[in-house]
Structure formats: structure tokens, C-alpha cells
Design goal:
TIM Barrel; 358 residues; Non-ribosomal Peptide Synthetase Peptidyl Carrier Protein, Chain A; alpha/beta; globular; single chain; 8-stranded parallel β-barrel
Length: 358
């Protein structure tokens, strides 16, 4: 089971919290290869790991093979990572309009060059690849992307069963994960999309034959999901979701970790968005939710949570969506991007140095 990189979420404090609940692979926020090579202070912070964090898993994004290769070489030479994941699934406009993220696999030759540069520079450090079904319903790329990555020597591939145009709308198409598993036969294939509770993961694996799961929005406000997954995968009874009284200390722990990592001012503001995710679906009042969204310190958080009556998560709210629900969208692409999937165009990297985090 793998924690999917999410901008502003999968920082070191959240990765540490998730790891406490269950063993898995917990990946950093998306790091721009170009920004890493240029020595961006913001990117260096995003690419940092806690001293006791292991394995150290970092997601890298880039549109130019030379920058991706240099970034990987630097990370490996400095001993900063145990695993590198390449991002070819980001649907954000500022990334795709330069040919990056979910747009890049359409250019098969460029995609192959980027993956090859990373694998060759990584040496013994495993490289994995994550991508989407394609740009839109007329331009599916996932089978080619999987086969090319397999041919380049990656350790595993992961597929989010939506197109870039879908963003997060509608349902993830798990049948694409099954087809990718049939096409890619020598390395593990992981599935991603609409896993909100442990039963969803078991269902995906049974229906698609995939070798593991990648969890994105499903763990927002639910770091304990990884413990539930660990139980499900080992055949043990899956623990029920925590009650409000059991969620409260997890929230306080998360807030303290963020303050310790970022400092008080930034840490508490980073935590505010998490409060809505933690309590989504629980029977707590709107007044409390509003107050939590205006938190100024951890003491205030403790005081507010002490006023809440204990209650379980209603069964009908166990799969309630959290995080992004936007979509569909018109995908922003470089001019002429869709003219020929096999030309040797190199995407413009202008602005790519600002893209760390997604």
C-alpha cells in the first residue's frame, strides 16, 4: 500500500502519522526536477525527510530528460532517497500546459527518454512510475506508458483510473487497471482511485488482479486507513473507524507534528484544512467546524475538541468523499501537443521550477 503524493498534504509530518498506523510506502509531495537542480529553497524543504523516516520515498516530476537525470543523480549521490517515483499523472494546469504530469505520456519518445534518464541515474535505487488513463477519452496512453516503463527497467507502475480531463469527477474506471495488469506482466501493477475504506482496496485487487493499491484522497483526515488496510491484507478483522473521542488525540498529534516541522505560524495554518477532513461525516456542529478552521494554536485545538460529545462515524458516511471533487476540465497543453505522439518535441520547461508540490 502506497500513500499517493498530494500537494500541501504528504509532507513529513503527515507521512510520519500515516506510518504509525501501518507499514507501507509513504511518498513525498511532487518535487520539480528542474527546481531541485537549480537549488530552490522551497523545493529542498519539500524534499526533506524526518531523521527517522524510512524508507525515504520521493516523487519527482520533470519534462526534460537531462534535468530529471541530474536531479536523480543528485538525490542518489547525496544518499537522500531509498525510492523515486516519477509523476506522469498530475492534472494541474500549470504542469500540463508545459507538457508535464499527465500530458507527458502522450509523447511516447519523450516519455521514454525521461524514464530512461531516471532509471539510469538511479542505479540500485528503485524507480516507479505513476500515470493516468490518458489525456482524455480520445487519447488514452496508459497501456503504452506501462509497457514503455516496464521496458525501461522501472520497479513498478501505478495507474489512477481517470483521465487528466476528468480531474476527480465521476468514478475511477478500474477496468483500465485490469487491462494494464494484462499488458504489464513482469513488474507489479498498482491501482489508484476511489479507495475510501479497506473493503474498496480488497475489491479493487479482486476485480483487477493488481498487486497493490495507492491511496490518495481516501486517507485525508483518515491516517488510520493504513492500519485498516494492513489488517484487511493480512486477513485480520478490520478495526472500525475511530469515534470522535478517538479522533481528537490524532488531530492534536498531527497539529503538533506540523508545528514542530514548520514552526508555529505556518504549522497551525497548514493544519486548518485537515480539520474539515478529520471530522467529515461525523455528527459535530457547524460552529465547531468553523472555529477549527480559524485555529491560532494547539491549545485552542485541545480546548475546542474537549467540548465535543463522543460519537461513532455513521455507517453511511464511511465512504464520504474528501479533498478535490473538481472536474471535468479542458486540459491545458502546449501548442501542437496532440499533433503527433511520436515526434521528438521537447516540452518547454518555462515555469517548471515553480511547480514543486503540484
Amino acid at each position: 500500500m502506497v500513500l499517493a503524493p498530494m500537494a500541501g498534504v504528504t509532507n513529513a509530518p503527515f507521512r510520519r502519522l500515516c506510518r504509525r498506523f501501518g507499514a507501507g510506502l509513504y511518498v513525498s509531495e511532487m518535487i520539480s526536477a528542474r527546481a531541485l537542480c537549480e537549488g530552490s529553497e522551497k523545493t529542498d524543504k519539500l524534499a526533506s525527510f524526518a531523521p527517522d523516516e524510512t524508507p525515504r520515498s520521493l516523487q519527482l516530476a520533470g519534462v526534460e530528460p537531462q534535468y530529471v537525470g541530474r536531479a536523480v543523480q543528485r538525490l542518489v549521490d547525496e544518499g537522500r532517497v531509498d525510492h523515486i517515483d516519477l509523476n506522469f499523472g498530475c492534472p494541474v494546469r500549470k504542469v500540463t500546459r508545459h507538457g508535464g504530469g499527465g500530458a507527458l505520456p502522450f509523447k511516447r519518445n519523450l516519455y521514454r527518454s525521461v524514464v530512461t534518464a531516471a532509471v539510469e541515474a538511479a542505479g540500485a535505487v528503485p524507480v516507479t512510475v505513476k500515470f493516468r488513463v490518458g489525456i482524455d477519452d480520445r487519447h488514452h496512453t496508459y497501456v503504452d506508458a506501462g509497457r514503455i516503463a516496464e521496458d525501461c527497467g522501472v520497479a513498478a507502475v501505478a495507474l489512477h483510473g481517470r483521465t487528466v480531463a476528468q480531474l476527480y469527477a465521476g468514478q475511477a474506471d478500474w477496468s483500465t487497471i485490469a487491462r494494464l495488469k494484462e499488458a504489464v506482466t513482469t513488474i507489479p501493477v498498482l491501482g489508484n482511485g476511489d479507495i475510501w475504506e479497506a473493503g474498496d482496496a480488497l475489491d479493487m485487487m479482486a476485480r483487477t488482479g493488481c498487486d497493490g493499491v495507492v491511496i490518495g484522497r481516501g486517507c485525508l483526515g483518515r491516517p488510520w486507513l493504513f492500519g485498516q488496510l494492513a489488517a484487511a491484507f493480512s486477513g485480520r478483522p478490520v478495526p472500525p473507524p475511530p469515534t470522535v473521542a478517538e479522533v481528537a488525540p490524532i488531530m492534536i498529534e498531527h497539529a503538533n507534528l506540523l508545528v514542530e516541522w514548520f514552526g508555529h505560524h505556518k504549522g497551525i495554518r497548514e493544519f486548518r484544512k485537515h480539520t474539515a477532513w478529520y471530522l467529515k461525516g461525523y455528527p459535530v456542529g457547524g460552529g465547531l467546524r468553523g472555529a477549527l478552521g480559524r485555529l491560532e494554536n494547539v491549545d485552542q485545538l485541545v480546548e475546542l475538541l474537549s467540548t465535543v460529545a463522543d460519537a461513532p462515524l455513521p455507517d453511511e458516511n464511511r465512504r464520504v468523499a474528501r479533498g478535490h471533487t473538481r472536474g471535468p476540465q479542458v486540459v491545458a497543453l502546449p501548442d501542437g501537443w496532440l499533433d503527433d505522439p511520436y515526434d521528438d518535441i521537447v516540452a518547454s520547461a518555462d515555469g517548471d521550477s515553480a511547480a514543486s508540490g503540484g
